[in-house]
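Notes from the pairing session

We agreed to fold both candidates in a single pass and log them together. This is the raw record for the first candidate, unedited. Please don't reformat it; downstream parsing expects exactly this layout.

Candidate A
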Amino acid sequence: MGPEMSDFAGMLEIQIPRLRRYARALTRDFSRADDLVQNCLTRAVAKQHLWQYGTDLRAWLFTILHHQHVNDVRRSIREGSHVKLEELPALTAQPDAIAVLQLRDLEAALGKLQLEQRQVILLVGLEEMSYEEVANILNVPVGTVRSRLSRGRDQLRRLMGMEERAPRKTSIKSEPADRCKDSTAKYGLAA
């Protein structure tokens, strides 16, 4: 393994947690997500010569992951296979149970979005990518990214019962629900 390959492997390794997080949120299935990331990394190593050193490796990898996911979905439709979503684990009582429930509701609502909207919300909200980066990864115009993001956020608000929010009373004591506010704000759901 030459020095370029070991440098590339090290740079790939740094991106694995982000790839895994996005793949898990996208597929909602740990096993499929891990397979998707593995296929992405295998393809990236095989196509290393196509990546230009100094350009955004993360965006390049997310593009590969996106295309691999699209191919997997198309293959499953063609083959007529059905993939079951794993059930959420049973919750135990925790001090921040309300926040945990809200996060579970957010995850369930994300799963109900159209794939195109979910992809954009995850890339912008979770991965903190710019609209331009997301447009390049998904191979769509920036206006399409903005439109999908707006429609996706609106749909998430409806699914989570947030469409008619009354102004919140401020309190000195932090409530468990307020701790989850950061999560909903991250996805652009907070009013």
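Candidate B (folded immediately after A)
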Amino acid sequence: MTSRSHPPTHEAWPLFSYGFRPFFLLGSIYAGLAILVWLPLFYGEITLSSVLAPRDWHVHEMLFGYLPAVITGFLFTAIPNWTGRLPIRGKPLMGLVAVWLAGRVCVTFSAHSGWLAAMLVDASFLLLVASAASREILAGSNWRNMKVVILLSLLLVANAAFHLEAHFEGTAEVSIRLGIAVIVLLIALIGGRIVPSFTRNWLVRENPGRLPAPFGRFDIVAIAVGALALLSWIVSPAGILSAGILAVAGLLHLVRLARWAGDRTTRERLLLILHIGYAFVPFGFLLNAAAALGQFPTSGGIHAWMAGAAGVMTLAVMSRATLGHTGQQLTASLVTQAIYAAVVLAAISRICAVLEPAYSMSLLHIAAFSWAAAFFCLRACVRASFDRQPQASAIGAKRCSLTLRLAQPQVGAYGKNNQKMWQNRRLKSRLRSIPRRPQR
């Protein structure tokens, strides 16, 4: 999984010319298909040749199937901008896609392949992704983003634990909560960087006035308390102690979201959807706090995090990246807005299905078909982008750095001196990546 010394064109294989293309395309297709399979599976109308229980298969494929694909597409598009190195593409990217597809097949038909083989093939994907990401980040001396790789490694541990727990205990409970907790922390970390950054860029240009608060101590406290609450939830999802920490974390993240001036982005749906997606993070904390006291079903808070925060945020990031990296205007078309409305409707319907048992069947159908429609339409948008060449060069184009970045500070937030220091570090990283002539 090493970067090449010169950027190949891959004109015959545009699917593998950039990291986001295969994983966003296949991830969106799989997200829609998995839900359409889950609905008749839930009602007992079909069966799968999997050693996992129907509910566990559904949870696993959304948590460790769909989401790692989107995370990989994001990382392999963002890392070249963090490090100044060439992106992973071509045959190495094809190999990763093949391993991801093999994992989906082995897990779904694990009654034939065996649970151990399914675990090894499935877990090998996250292992390869974490290894490739670590190598690129370390080679580019971009130490601050190693925290993303650490969380990715925890997701790998949760995936392996899922298979072990399901085999020896009959169902996976603790490993599910561990995997969900890692996803929530990734959203809090990455979303906490890109949402205020994108919002600030747009407000400075289109709607001057109040700007998002820069990342600071309050954000660190909110993330730390959120991590503590998630740890408590993993160990003991019920009880007054867990309920209290979850409630505090929810309130802190709610205040954090309010500091990002999301109310001033209603004119640009491409930004507004990011704020709506992040709003499901504190909503999930509060719902799980109520569930810890026995006042609300547990699945409500889980789906607020997964269908709401993870579903909406990943779809929003995929649609934005597809536009930004193919030279299109960064604005939400009517089709894109319809996609956003469908995925939000799916998340709300799934949460409400827990509250209203009398209407649960109708709400589940609404949630499933709205979800599938959103991701299948997104698949068409991603596929249409193949006719356009990515606008990011081997060492990061301007549009790419505006679309997907975590490390570059904003002038208004941190000052010109810090921006200049960041640019110098990036220049040094680029110089280190250029092969030197041997000394004579």
